[in-house]
Protein 1
Amino acid sequence: MSGMGSPDTAEVSAVSAACDADRIDGHLLALVISHTDAPAAVREQLSLDDATQRALMAAADARASVIQGIATLSTCSRTELYAVVRSPVEGLSALRTLMARHSGAPDEVIDRMRAVRGDAVVRHIMRVSSGLESLMLGEHEILGQLREMLHRT
């Protein structure tokens, strides 16, 4: 790991190469819930351990006609799915279905997750990665969690 959580050259090159190789033409979509959206009792129902996140991503791969790519983030204060989808409407439905199946949470809990679309997804992940969306403003533990998300993806 390089200094203070910044990506090293190999990581940047790997992400860049993946983008060049895939040239995905779709819509950015995120399904998110955090400490600002719901109390811990609700968020806990949506929490995904590493094995469950991997299973969810594998299930998303099987839905390639709708979901072109997916990444998951689950911490004590947030659970988020980031995806590139062919259709925002079908993509949102697919993400909600994946969360229901893999978290086991009831529909009324899944419905508490909010959709973020397009450029707002980029702004959201930048705010999350900079610690502006953390329980403790500016904390940097999230950078390691995002790095794990990228490696898992």
Protein 2
Amino acid sequence: MKIFVTGGTGFIGTHLIRRLKETQYELYCLARVTSQVEKLEEAGAIVIRGKMPAQVLTGSTFPFVHVRDVAEAIVKALEKKDNIGEKYMIVSENMTFGDINKTLSDISGTKLPKLVLPDSLTILGAHLLTGLANLVKKPPILDMSVDQMRLMKHGLQVDGSKATRELGLSYMPIRAALEEQVEQI
């Protein structure tokens, strides 16, 4: 089976690629022209250079958090006395995809795609790609399934303040997390 990974040079992506290397999957990774891809190639991935052609669902809000904050929250929850059964939402900030794109563009100096697809056109495209995927029995291109795009369009806002109050967790601001990640790429 072929696996297409976007973000393969990023923090989570490098760990994912390292793990997928141990499987029988044929790996394909999208990487920017400026990305260092040696580790992807060492893992046997076929690297496709390019960029996303358009921005989509820029007004939809989603929760974001640095992966280290998630790890810290898990340890703090485990270590907290009489904490069995407690649940925590670990969220630094709720941001729109448009805000995330703009922040990444500002940090990296990379221009955003000029084309911003209307939500209705994005959902229509997802229907077409999902229909095609069903015909060829493969996942939709760019993971643009109807379910995924509907979820992204709907968005999600989460309050992570319980972890701050009860666990003493201090979240890294998302801009700082993105700056750190861009610096590593």
Protein 3
Amino acid sequence: MARNWHKPLILLMWMALPFSAWVYWSAWDRLPARMAVHFDAAWQPNGYTSRDGATQLGLEILLVMLVLFTVAMLIIHTLKPTAFWPALAIAYLVVGVCTYANYSIVKFNLHGQQIRSGSLGEPCKSSSQFLVDLVPRRGLGDGTVPAVALSVHVDAASAASALRASSSRRSWN
């Protein structure tokens, strides 16, 4: 039994998978149908997928990492036992980052990014909102095309003025 102490440590790493599945499952009813899953350097969402796609992608990436690290840990322990501890630390770090990424994606999509308005001092929902309007195009009959405008909202007053400007643009067509 003294030689098998590494197996429980490897098995413990697998607890990340049911934890991540529980994070998605516990928030499933509150998650939006279209979830942000990729972010740019300023931590603004720039990649979206469905709720099912986000869950599947997050859990599959974690599963692949767990399988790779489990096989690697067993091989390392057999061939070079002195390298087991550093390799296990790296495995736990990577699996921890993947688990935290799943948790953060769920948390972001549940609550949005909270920012502080300099003028009001209270948190506002989402520093950027995408306004999608269907705008009639002249000369193409009554067909419509989607027009996307990016508006940065700092407080409720600027959000209201952006909506007024958007509706006034539609009225002159």
Protein 4
Amino acid sequence: MIRLATALGLLIALPLPILAQEVLLKLNVAPGTRIIGEEQADMEMALKLAMAGQTMDLDQTVGSRMPAIVEILEVDADGVPTKARVSFDAAASVSSTAMGQSQDAAHVLAGQTVTLSRGPSGTVIDPDPGIDPAQRAEIAGYLDLSRNELPGRAISVGDSWPGSISALPGEATGEATFTLNGLRSADGREVADISIGLDFSGDMDGATMTGTGSGQGVIDVATGLWLDSSIDVTGSFEGTAQEAGIEAQVSGTMSGSTTYTARLENVAASTGASEGTPAPTTETVDRTETETFTDGTLTVTLTGDQVEIIQNGQTYPGRIISTEGDALSGTFTASGTAFPFEARREGDGLVLTSGGTTYVLAREPGATTANPLAGQ
């Protein structure tokens, strides 16, 4: 996941700023920045439940996938986001297995778009999705981004600093230690390789939980945004809990991992924007007609902000996230995984790019269907 320089010639060729041994690491984004990311978490728990003179072994697994696009709308004078739009992919999901029974379900925000803003009492979510406090704190993290995980000052390679990580099991809280391992160039960016150490403790359904974790990640130096990260955790818990009104002794172990990957678009480090600096104007998606484009192999149908891509008999649903002039961008879903695409209108056709491959599509004759209920 972390790409290291493997050739001395490449290392020598790096520009001097990349070779600097001290770097400022702080969140510093500009309005208009788009973060196309996905977080995956998996956890295994081996439980032992003792109550009413009987002991029961109960193994559980839980998992989640959260592909989402974060669009920065406003930032403060320090380049910290104060307002952002988050579009959760329809593939966002949660899963669990217990006592041989498996459950898979869409995340409560799958396919939805919310706007996050900083208010006097914390993060405001609009529209309010009616989620529980734990889910609300999880969603608020899309506005905080890496703010609580960076030193906010210049540091040297080998330096460490304290921080916090919110994605912990149960109601645990923890202290993390981050270390700058090195600086390098990747895809034209200056990036920092970071190692992560974690100690956490807290409550899990009445039982006392303790654990440790370790991982690594890559940060874009210009913006302070994570490009990828992975953390493995292990822990144990023991205590008293209530099960169906009966007091039970609970003990067990847990292990799990969290991974995150992201791609940045329209990136520019903030240059000291004033509070409430808006993002560049983005056009509203026209929702009144259906258009179909094809090259004979790939067919793309646009209906408002909905996308349908057909290739080799397979249909992939998607969404347009934003448009600007003749350009548009969004995601489509294949086998449960969200993939980004970009497209632009050229004459009467559409040029679509995804995964490094470009398709030149022509409009199908008579393929435009006006909405008969749209205003004249």
